[in-house]
Amino acid sequence: MTNLIRFNKPFGVLSQFTDRGTETTRATLSDFIDLPGVYPAGRLDRDSEGLLLLTSDGKLQARIADPKYKMTKSYLVQVEAEVEEKSLAMLRQGVALKDGMTRPAEVERIADPDLWLRDPPIRVRKNIPECWIKLTISEGRNRQVRRMTAAVGHPTLRLVRWSVGDWTLAGLQPGEWQAED
Fold this sequence. Notes:
- It is a single chain.
- By secondary structure, the protein is α+β, with helices and mostly antiparallel strands.
- It has two domains: about 5-65 and about 165-180, Alpha-Beta Plaits; about 70-165, Alpha-L RNA-binding motif (Alpha-Beta Plaits, 2-Layer Sandwich).
- Helices cover about 15% and strands about 30% of the residues.
- It has helices at about 60-65, 85-95, 145-150; strands spanning about 5-10, 40, 50-55, 75-80, 95, 100, 105-110, 130-135, 155-165, 165-170, 175-180.
């Protein structure tokens, strides 16, 4: 059995193999991965895209997902408005959220990344510019990146997880997965 799978989770897909409790069926991991015995190591919100790791190894799953190991996760984040240095400095120091201060993040403004088109596309407003940042965190609170960017005045428009630890999304299109050695 494979030890680890890198999966490029498309927008709108749940980070689980079944969809319980809804009248309408939503896309799940089982629509893309037909491999018994693997489970997500962490989660990625339905409205987020990018790298999701799956494994059959419980110890590896815990090392990836448990915040006590402080495994870094990097995100490419399209935010509303032009990000000024003051906002980046706030993210680097840690941001006060309702559930407490975040750990300091690594963050930088980046050029528009060469990514696939999102389906559906983000909502564009003519009078409000947007830009991209790369944000790296070492914790994983619920919707943390979105809450952090909103707290510094830049709501998230698109969120793509690029890496978890040393594993990256490189070479995978949305819906594709690859087993790692």
